[in-house]
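Human: I would love a firmer grasp of how sequence relates to backbone shape in proteins. Could you go through the record with me and say what the backbone is doing? Here is the record:
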Amino acid sequence: MAQGKTVDQIAVGETATYAKTVSERDIELFGEVTGDMNPVHFDEAYAAGTPFKTRIAHGMLSGSFFSTILGTQLPGPGTIYMAQTLKFKAPVKIGDEVVATMTVREIVPEKRRVTFACEARVGDTIVIEGEALVLAPAKS
């Protein structure tokens, strides 16, 4: 199996991006897997009475795109997710393309720890921002 980048192969300022258009099925599956069946995600009539005026995707659905980056791109396979903060700034709706970007902010080589700035956008709108801490893969 492939291994992701080790801590000595990562540089401050390095970035990785994942883009996904959120579909009806994504919301259904996320609700099924997590048990979060909040009607703001599933019932248009209910959602019309909320500040969003329409159904929205689960915030953590878009937040999970950061995990996709960490586990598949940067650092990649073998990465251990240690911590994550997220601030949800705007809703994501069905059909929106979410572009998640992570940027290496700090590296602690002796502990194999890497801190990332996290940002997700729909167009020019920031929908999520935060920070992640990971344990980078060990040298083989």
